[in-house]
């Protein structure tokens, strides 16, 4: 009689799910507890950079110590993916709040901009959400999770070095961010060209002057200040009225919504409407246009005198600016005008040109293209029956007096208007939307400060420009402001941030760790799988 095989005992229902359920509960308890505790303590502890650093450091150390020293699943929970992903979602919510609610503004700003919601924003400190205790609690949990996760994979080996590099990079970046929050200084320096020197910076917070000052540690002199302007340009501006709130209350204000180059293409406006420029006259003028007719018209002659071209009707003349010469047209022979030294009298009926001078007269047969006086006078076509009109034209290709014919289509209905940039008038699409052809003069392209920084025997003479900051003695100088009414004034922003280098060092470590995990670790693991097992002794080999 054979013994029956041993059958495994059935596992209690839900036993396999017990660790996962416990992790979910611990995750919810830790995240929710951090947020609620932070919100409660924030009643007495105002937000601030020091608050963020101290609170997150102390709380993170406590959570990590409890997780490492006490039995249970706390360490595995905070080191797990479920906990980290929950933290990232919570941090994303804070990022959304910080984007929707402008940070660090005066209380009056929130009352004007957000109205009835302003007391809630100020009461919950959502105006400084990234320096408050709830956010500090999340950062404490995140730091503890990074370190706990690293302890789960200890010790360090070649096959997991990428993992530890990534985690070291995270801790380095977090430490750098903490140093930046607690120790960085940001402020303004106002200087005038000609040698004015600054030794301190006016400390600011969220762009507002705090009333404090910090020493630069060196002398900063403004030697020269230059403004670089764009060339004059012409644009088609699309404006719309928007509701704004300011110290005067709520009212509508026209704001530029889009801007377009003046060309002949059809452009799509926000909202689906379109417009195009049917004609562009860069150097606008009115020009004669003659149309031949069968009857009911008048004779017309095209004449050019010293570069001026006109169509003349009987009895009209084209004279030089000084009045010394003139072309006179008539169907019959016209009389010489008094005071004109040289008159070119054109008779349409006789097809003759009489050149009248103080020395006498001479006649020349009229022909299209006839040139007289060395080319100063040119006679063109003679139209026996014509109608003359003045039409828009351009005197040159240079943009001197630009005018456009603008056509806009709104809801399928077209509307046209001739618009001059020197006298801008709007084509209204409706009460709140309009197109304007406008000239933009002297818009500032860049402003440059030539400065000299001196500390002891060390000296640096350089140029600070927009998007081209300069670093000296641990301070970074940015060009941020100028005064159109005072061409010698330059506004600089000075930033001393000892943590930024550590933040970027952390990014570099993370990048190196990711590259190691993707390209080095697979090779190491593959090499280990291909190596044959070596017997420990001859007996094992036998």
Characterize the structure shown.
With 542 residues, the protein is of the alpha+beta class. It is 30% helix and 40% strand. The chain contains eleven helices and 26 strands. The strands form five sheets. An eight-stranded antiparallel beta sheet has the order 23-22-3-2-1-26-25-24, with no helix packed on it. Strands 8, 9, 10, 16 and 17 form a five-stranded antiparallel beta sheet that branches. A five-stranded mixed beta sheet has the order 11-12-13-14-15, with no helix packed on it. Helix 7 (133-152) packs antiparallel against helix 8.
| Distance between the first and last residues' Cα | 37 Å
Total strand count, please? 26
Uncertain regions spanning at least 5 consecutive residues: 538-542
Radius of gyration: 41 Å
* Average pLDDT score: 90
Number of helices: 11
Helix content: 25-40%
Arrangement of strands in the largest sheet: 23-22-3-2-1-26-25-24
Estimate the global geometry from the Cα principal axes.
Answer: elongated
- What's the story with the biggest beta sheet? 8 strands, antiparallel
Approximately what portion of the residues adopt beta-strand conformation? 35-45%
What multimeric state do the chains show?
Answer: single chain
Structural class: alpha+beta
């Amino acid at each position: 009689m054979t013994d029956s095989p041993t059958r495994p005992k059935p596992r209690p229902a839900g036993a396999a799910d017990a660790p996962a359920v416990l992790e979910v509960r611990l995750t919810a308890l830790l995240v929710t507890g951090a947020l609620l505790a932070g919100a409660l303590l924030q009643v007495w502890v105002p937000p601030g950079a020091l608050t963020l650093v101290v609170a997150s450091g102390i709380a993170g150390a406590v959570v990590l110590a409890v997780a490492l020293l006490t039995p249970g699943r706390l360490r595995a929970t905070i080191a797990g993916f479920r906990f980290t992903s929950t933290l990232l979602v919570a941090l994303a919510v804070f990022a959304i709040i910080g984007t929707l609610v402008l940070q660090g503004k005066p209380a009056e700003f929130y009352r004007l901009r957000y109205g009835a919601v302003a007391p809630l924003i100020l009461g919950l400190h959502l105006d400084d959400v990234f320096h408050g205790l709830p956010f500090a609690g999340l950062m404490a949990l995140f730091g503890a999770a990074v370190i706990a996760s690293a302890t789960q994979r200890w010790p360090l080996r070649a096959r997991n070095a990428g993992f530890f590099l990534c985690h070291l990079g995270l801790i380095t970046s977090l430490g750098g961010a903490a140093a930046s929050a607690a120790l960085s200084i940001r402020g303004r320096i106002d200087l005038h060209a000609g040698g004015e020197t600054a030794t301190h910076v006016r400390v600011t917070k969220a762009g507002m002057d705090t009333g404090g000052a910090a020493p630069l540690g060196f002398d900063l002199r403004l030697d020269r200040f230059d403004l670089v302007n764009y060339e004059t340009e012409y644009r088609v501006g699309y404006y719309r009225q928007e509701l704004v709130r300011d110290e005067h209350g709520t009212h509508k204000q026209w704001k530029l919504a889009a801007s377009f180059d003046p060309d002949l293409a059809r452009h799509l406006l926000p909202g689906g409407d379109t417009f195009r420029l049917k004609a562009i006259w860069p150097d606008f003028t009115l020009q004669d246009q003659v149309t031949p007719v069968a009857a009911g018209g008048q004779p017309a002659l095209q004449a050019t005198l010293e570069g001026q071209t006109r169509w003349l009707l009987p009895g009209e003349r084209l004279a030089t600016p000084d009045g010394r010469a003139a072309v006179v047209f008539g169907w019959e022979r016209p009389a010489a005008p008094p005071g004109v030294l040289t008159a070119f009298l054109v008779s349409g009926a006789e097809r003759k040109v009489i050149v009248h001078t103080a020395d006498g007269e001479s006649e020349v047969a009229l022909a299209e293209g006839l040139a007289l006086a060395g080319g100063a006078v040119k006679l063109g076509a003679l139209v026996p029956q014509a109608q003359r009109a003045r039409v828009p034209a351009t005197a040159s290709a240079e943009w001197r007096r630009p005018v456009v014919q603008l056509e806009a289509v709104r809801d399928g209905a077209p509307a046209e208007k001739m618009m001059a940039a020197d006298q801008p008038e709007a084509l209204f699409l409706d009460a709140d939307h309009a197109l304007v052809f406008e000239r933009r003069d002297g818009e500032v392209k860049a402003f440059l400060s030539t400065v000299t920084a001196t500390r002891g025997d060390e000296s640096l003479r350089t140029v600070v420009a927009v998007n081209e900051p300069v670093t000296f003695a641990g301070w970074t100088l940015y060009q941020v402001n100028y005064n159109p009414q005072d061409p010698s004034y330059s506004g600089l922003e000075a930033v001393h941030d000892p943590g930024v280098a550590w933040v970027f060092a952390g990014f570099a470590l993370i990048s190196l760790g990711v590259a190691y995990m993707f390209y080095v670790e697979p090779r190491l693991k593959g090499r280990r799988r291909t190596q044959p097992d070596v017997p420990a002794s001859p007996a094992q080999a036998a």
